[in-house]
């Protein structure tokens, strides 16, 4: 399968003086116009499991180039089934008013326990390597503007994050090595459409060059699909059916425009 390109985010430059309160959770003393809101939402790429459950302890952003400026956005203390967050579905991880300025990084801190994968009806614990317990860090270099809400989309790629353990992990069958991409919703667009027939149980990919930039699984009832968080570009939409009686099909030259949904209609899959 094509690999996904990890990439950071650059927001538009702000007007006015930034008031950075490093490491401070409270922004109530800021004058009007000196704060903006960061909203963090999560979605997922599909995977061939019954469930992929991750337990998120907290979400933080950093307004410095080192580890001294972390500010907590939220503390969900909640387990999310990533496979419910496909085909355009997202979940709110947190929203917080912040002093205007540049936030260099965002990180998700996972709980050590409560992470698991369900394979063919059997639940297996997901062991998190020690490095990941300090947080999944992403460089975002986000500029927060006064009185504006920015929506940051985190794509937690279940298919690449769950890894079968090697012999060195005695008694552990699966590891969780998180792979997360970030995009600014305000600078992205969407591709939507329908795969026919719906019982092809198709995976759908948006590919730019050799990189898969977004993926989902078409609805098994009506075949509808939605690929979100795409930068403005031209894509190949590749449909890969799980039902082996149908052939895969590519649609090239699919344009994405910021802030718009390009509905490409129905993709008819031929039988083998």
Could you explain the architecture of this structure?
With 272 residues, the chain is mainly beta. The chain folds into two domains: 35-178; 188-268, Sandwich (Immunoglobulin-like), CATH 2.60.40.10. Helices cover 1% and strands 54% of the residues. The strands form four sheets. Strands 2, 3, 4, 6, 7, 8, 9, 11 and 12 form a nine-stranded mixed sheet that branches. The chain starts with 34 loop residues before the first strand and ends with a strand.
Low-confidence stretches: 1-31
The whole-angstrom Rg is 20 Å
**Biggest pleated-sheet summary:** 9 strands, mixed
Distance between the termini: 21 Å
How helix-rich are the residues, as a percent range? Answer: under 10%
Order of helices and strands: EEEEEEEEEEHEEEEEEEEEE
> How many helices?
1
- What number is the mean pLDDT? 85
Number of strands: 20
Q: What count of structural domains?
A: 2
Structural class: mainly beta
Note the beta-strand portion.
Answer: over 45%
Overall shape:
globular
Task: Outline the fold blueprint.
Layout: E1 35-45, E2 51-62, E3 70-74, E4 78-81, E5 91-99, E6 101-110, E7 116-119, E8 122-127, E9 136-144, E10 149-157, H1 158-161, E11 162-164, E12 174-176, E13 180-184, E14 188-196, E15 202-208, E16 211-217, E17 224-231, E18 233-241, E19 249-256, E20 261-268
Parallel strand pairs: 1-10, 8-12, 14-20
Antiparallel strand pairs: 1-5, 2-3, 2-4, 2-6, 2-7, 6-9, 7-8, 10-13, 11-12, 14-17, 15-16, 15-18, 18-19
């Amino acid at each position: 399968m094509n690999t996904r390109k990890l990439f950071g985010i650059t927001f538009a430059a702000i007007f006015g003086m930034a008031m950075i309160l490093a490491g401070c959770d409270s922004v109530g003393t800021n004058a009007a116009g000196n704060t903006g809101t960061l909203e963090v939402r999560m979605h997922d790429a599909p995977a061939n499991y019954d469930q992929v459950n991750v337990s998120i302890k907290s979400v933080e952003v950093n307004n410095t180039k080192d580890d001294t400026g972390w500010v907590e956005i939220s503390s969900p203390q909640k387990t999310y089934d990533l496979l419910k967050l496909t085909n355009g579905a997202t979940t709110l991880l947190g929203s917080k008013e912040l002093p205007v300025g540049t936030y260099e990084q965002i990180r998700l801190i996972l709980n050590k326990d409560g992470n698991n994968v369900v394979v063919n009806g059997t639940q297996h614990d997901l062991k998190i390597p020690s490095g990941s317990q300090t947080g999944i860090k992403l460089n975002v270099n986000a500029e927060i503007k006064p009185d504006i809400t920015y929506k940051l989309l985190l794509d937690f790629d279940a298919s690449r994050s769950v890894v079968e353990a090697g012999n060195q992990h005695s008694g552990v069958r699966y590891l969780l090595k998180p792979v997360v991409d970030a995009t600014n919703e305000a600078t992205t667009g969407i591709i939507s459409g329908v795969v026919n027939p719906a019982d092809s149980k198709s995976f759908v990919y948006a590919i730019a060059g050799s990189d898969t930039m977004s993926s989902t699984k078409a609805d098994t009832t009506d075949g509808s699909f939605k690929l979100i968080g795409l930068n403005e570009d031209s894509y190949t939409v590749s449909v890969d059916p799980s039902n082996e009686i149908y052939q895969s099909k590519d649609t090239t030259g699919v344009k994405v425009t910021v802030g718009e949904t390009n509905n490409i209609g129905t993709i008819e899959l031929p039988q083998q």
